[in-house]
Amino acid sequence: MAEIEYRPWKKIIVHEVRELPPKEFFEGLATSAEAQKQGANPVVLWLDGVAFVTVMMPDTERILSDKIDGILHYSVVQFARTSYQAERKVTIQGRDHTIKMVKAEDNPDLSNLARFLNGLKPKETGP
What we know:
Blueprint: E1 11-14, E2 17-19, H1 22-35, E3 43-47, E4 50-56, H2 61-68, E5 71-81, E6 87-92, E7 95-103, H3 108-119
Parallel strand pairs: 1-5, 2-5, 3-7
Antiparallel strand pairs: 3-4, 4-5, 6-7
């Protein structure tokens, strides 16, 4: 019988952070899903006032080596400061889209990521 070993991530490296106003964040997700012809509703993670999506770095030899060593790389984390709603409705070019929000409070790594994002200075909007 195989031995089971649990190895949580030792480190998560975020290479780029993009904060967007909630309207732009959700519209961008709907537009991307429509462009990719996804049949399912887009899903975002939510925790402590932050909705976010992560994009992994492509699995190069270096990235795979780091993963084996417990280091995870996100090429970008895109987020918006917003309240929780199980579903967010967005209209793009006259078509209605639903963005699902999933609470991520049971994952300690995502909790740390949300705390990190919350600690960033809020993006200032123009006039």
